Amino acid sequence: MTGRSPLTAPRRPRIRRAGPRPRRLVATGLALVALVLLCAASLYVGSRLVPPTTVSRILIDSLTHLGSGQSSPERARALGVIAQDYSAVVDLRLPRTVIALSAGAALGVAGALMQVLTRNPLAEPGILGVNAGAAFAIVLVIVLLGVSSPVVFVAASLAGAFVATLAVFLIGTLGAGVITPERLTLAGVAIGAVLAGITSAFRLSNPREYSILLSWESGDLSQRGWETALPALPVVLAGLVLALALAGPMNALLLGEDMAASLGANVRRTRFLLVLAITLLAGSATALAGPIVFLGLMAPHVARWIVGPDQTRLLPLAALLSAVIMVLADVIARVVMWPGEVPVGIVSALLGAPVLIVLVRRRRASGL
């Protein structure tokens, strides 16, 4: 008997094809490193020149005496530094960094959720009128009530986002009783256009309040401190946790309604929870940083290009990338016209537009 028996023939070595995991790990690692460096730059760079050694001492002291109840001037005297330097780091730069991180992550995840909900790869949080509703509510409390408290802004933003979402659902189901991505998209665009028009009318009819509205609408973070960040952070966290919990049902929903139902996913409940998560994230981000554009559209596209459509991998990376872009935009906003500043909303738009143009021209980035 010639030849080798199949039982004794040597096996061919198994060749493992390189999947997306190495690229995902490299991208996540680079994004984390970039985020850490940018956060450090955000804490050490500002319109007021504070020596790096002084910034380090102030940060260590503020973390050591967290919750002590002492004011910034008291801690500055105890530490032996200038009170203005201590306040610039603890009361301005630190909360501003937290706001940029939180708003960026919220917008990135909200955009990813929106693209799954509407099954539209070019969707972003404003497509359901959530941002328009939040902005409209804030304009109302500024113009009609004369209130400029950040705590009131957060409450009004969330209330406006919820009301706008409810209106979109009512209009989207009117006469049919069936919620479809097409109906939600059309209703959201209509509601957003109406609310944006009314907001513009209020702004133009109240020149005295125009400076406040312009500062908020342009995404100016220079005057936002802990009183803005602390009320919105729990809402952002709740939205992020809810979004991550929906990653599995979202993967099923991407396969189509019938396939998702056959896999055991409750399509109606998943859509409702998606809208709730989008409302929490987009509403809180709008209250924190104003109506920032492009982040909710750009970050999910970049994440999808790196890790693919799996939402369990896409959502964390989208949050990370969006936070990186937001903090980068904030740092650039401080130094590009130093000692003055540019609103971060303008910088984020300038950063996002070229990247978005490149992404939509890529075949792989154009679909879900």
UniProtKB/TrEMBL annotation:
Family matches, as InterPro entries: ABC_BtuC-like, ABC_transptr_permease_BtuC
Assigned keywords, A-Z: Cell membrane, Membrane, Transmembrane, Transmembrane helix, Transport
Highest taxon of the lineage: Bacteria
Bilayer-spanning residue ranges: 94-114, 126-145, 151-172, 184-204, 232-252, 272-294, 314-335, 342-360
Disordered: annotated span: 1-20
A Pfam entry, by short name: FecCD
Membrane topology per record: Multi-pass membrane protein
Location(s) in or outside the cell: Cell membrane
PANTHER family, A to Z: FE(3+) DICITRATE TRANSPORT SYSTEM PERMEASE PROTEIN FECC-RELATED (PTHR30472:SF1), FERRIC ENTEROBACTIN TRANSPORT SYSTEM PERMEASE PROTEIN (PTHR30472)
Family to which the UniProt record says this protein belongs: Belongs to the binding-protein-dependent transport system permease family. FecCD subfamily.
Protein name in the entry: FecCD family ABC transporter permease
Organism: Brachybacterium tyrofermentans
